[in-house]
Amino acid sequence: MDFTTQPEGAHFQIQNQQKQNLNALPFQRTYDGIKRLVSTYRADPAAKSNLEVILAYPGFHAVIFHQLSSRFYDRRMYVTARVISHIARVLTGIEIHPGAKIGKRLFIDHGFGVVIGETAEVGDDVMLYQGVTLGSTTKERGKRHPTVGDRVVVGAGATVLGDISLGNDSRVGAGAVVVHSVPAGATAVGIPGKVVKTRGDRMPGLEFERIAACPEPKPMDIPEAPILAQESWCI
């Protein structure tokens, strides 16, 4: 910009305005992030308004608290970060370590009992149901928690342990205990978790856009009950 054509002192005004824009930028990013997160939770058919999401969705609150605590953690203010995460756990029943890396639009459905460890990495558009644990199997320092790809769904009560990965678009069934990596697009169920479906052959009941309705139960004799239980994947 040619300041010679500007009135006297105009370049100082421009510099001040630029500084104000830079100072406002983090707040603008935070505001935009909250708007995107609200829109994510509004995808839940139970959500009736933005105000309801902001006031009464613990998953929403947990993510906001984590955004705050992670800022202090990145600045090595570990005690402050852990205090904030502890307050979030008391208020929401969800524990996300400040050191965990959380992607965009994380959706925690109901959320009570969700635990995400320090070195866990969660991608974009991930959905976690209540009782999910992204935990560790060792006390050694370093990467010891799972890496979750984009668009992953983890069912209620599932436990994912160790430095393993859940590939993009993968699914983990309710109650599963996963200790080995799951390929992209695959579905793992059981204890220990085993891959039972691969990309292109997804199981019903685990989709986020929107969660598929479980089929109506069919009449059965008592001896058929265990077989039907193995074939049902609704959560």
Structure description:
It is built from five helices and 15 strands. The chain has 235 residues and is an alpha/beta fold. It has a domain of 134 residues: Hexapeptide repeat proteins (UDP N-Acetylglucosamine Acyltransferase, domain 1). Strand 14 and strand 15 form a beta hairpin. Helix 3 packs antiparallel against helix 4. The chain is globular. It starts with 9 loop residues before the first helix and ends with a helix. The N terminus and C terminus are likely disordered.
Keywords for this entry:
235 residues; alpha/beta; UDP N-Acetylglucosamine Acyltransferase, domain 1; six-stranded mixed sheet; five-stranded parallel sheet; 15% strand; globular; disordered N terminus; disordered C terminus
Strand order, biggest sheet? Answer: 3-6-9-12-14-15
CATH architecture of the domain at 102-235: 3 Solenoid
N→C terminal distance:
61 Å
What is Rg? 22 Å
Highest-level CATH class of the domain at 102-235: Mainly Beta
Largest sheet: 6 strands, mixed
User: What name does the CATH topology of the domain at 102-235 carry?
Assistant: UDP N-Acetylglucosamine Acyltransferase, domain 1
**Percent of residues in beta strands:** 5-15%
> What is the ordering of alpha helices and beta strands?
HHHHEEEEEEEEEEEEEEEH
Fourth-tier CATH superfamily name of the domain at 102-235: Hexapeptide repeat proteins
Structural class: alpha/beta
Q: How many β-strand stretches? A: 15
Low-pLDDT residue intervals, each spanning 5 or more residues: 1-7, 202-206, 208-235
What is the averaged pLDDT score? Answer: 77
Question: Which geometry do the CA atoms define?
Answer: globular
Number of helices: 5
**Approximately how much helix is present in the residues?**
25-40%
